[in-house]
Amino acid sequence: MWLPLAIVSAFWIAGAGDELLRSSRWAQYVYLADAFLHGSLHLVRAPNDVRDLAQVGGHLFVVFGPFPALLLMPLVPIFQRSTPDVLVLVLTALAGLFAFQGWLERVQACGDPVRLACAVLTLGLGTAMHYGAPMGNVWLHAQITALALQCFALLFAASGRAWLAGVALGLTVLTRSTVTLAAPLVLWELANAPHGGARVGWRRAMVPIVVPVVAAVAVHAVYNWARFGNPTDAGYSYMLMNGQLQGLVANFGRFNASFLGGNLGGWLFRLPVRTESGLAPDPHGMSLLITTPYLLLALWPRSWTTRERLAAACSAIIAIPALLYYNDGWAQFGQRFALDWIPLGLFVAARGSRFAPRSLVVGLTVWGAAVGAWGLQWFRANHLH
């Protein structure tokens, strides 16, 4: 069913405009790809804006997972600083939507094509992906790439393609490691996938999932050691930040229960702000109940399957680091850190949609897409440059 992907593509292309074929404002992955091509782990060319880069010994480093830069490496020798990382991210995001749809179809999550389309459209247009994919920038590039890898890991696992599932999950370690916490669900999907008239089973599932993840952890450790002399140091303590964030880290550290109330409150209750020209999104991110009300379908009364319970548990586990983090994701539309677990949460909601009135499911989907379109235009006008 290609219609949902076509609709999302049309929204993103229209929303991105002439930015689609350009390099994003914060294209640190383009600079990192250029560094790799020069045989260097630190940036050979420095961007104009160095926020969130790590500075050590006069060199600048990208602290985020390196895998997205590898995808850009074939293009950088041709386009240099003008490498269209936005287009690459849009294609990556569409691939992730394709995998998400395939997973939902494989496990028969939605019950009918309309409800399936609503789940896919919500992921593409009713989450932070709506503004993130067409705008690019290093932070969302890492998150959306990791989301796509997570969806492919789930699709491959549910299809019984063991090593492909493990490799996709392993690559999340090299992109955004919190997404790797979906491993219990990926492992369960593979163990329960059909294989020769039976199930794959836990014994056959364990090695193809664990080995690639462990290998990716080892690669990342070597990468850290080569950059900073410590296999567990990804460079976050050397990041260039504004004074307010530096103060928070100095007083509380990067993860602290003191941040839980503010972050959780933002995810659930933060409203638009009133300006001279009317209502505007809160740049710290608005409530998911406003941007992605489709998630409420997860609460629809029903008997939950093991898959639903495990997906919900993994969503909660993945969310914990973001809820304890010193940074709420500013500036953003919606909640970009929720992208780490949103495919799993939307799966649970899609299961709930089977029992809800179709008109309600469609209405919540349309609401999310409309709010997402507002967010894309707001971000483009106020924060792109």
What does this structure look like?
The chain has 385 residues and is mostly helical. The chain has one domain. 58% of the residues lie in helices and 5% in strands. It has 17 helices and six strands. The chain has helices at 3-16, 28-37, 67-72, 76-79, 85-106, 113-125, 129-135, 138-158, 162-173, 183-191, 202-228, 243-252, 260-269, 288-291, 306-323, 342-353, 358-382, and strands at 53-56, 59-62, 194-195, 198-199, 273-275, 278-280. It has a two-stranded antiparallel sheet. The protein has a two-stranded antiparallel ribbon with strand order 3-4. Strand 3 (194-195) and strand 4 form a beta hairpin. The two termini are 36 Å apart. The mean pLDDT is 95.
Structural class: mainly alpha
- The whole-number mean of residue pLDDT values reads 95
What general outline do the C-alpha atoms trace?
Answer: globular
Rg calc: 20 Å
Low-confidence stretches: none
List SSEs in N-to-C order: HHEEHHHHHHHHEEHHHEEHHHH
- Proportion of helical residues: 55-70%
Question: How many structural domains can be distinguished in the coordinates?
Answer: 1
Largest sheet: 2 strands, antiparallel
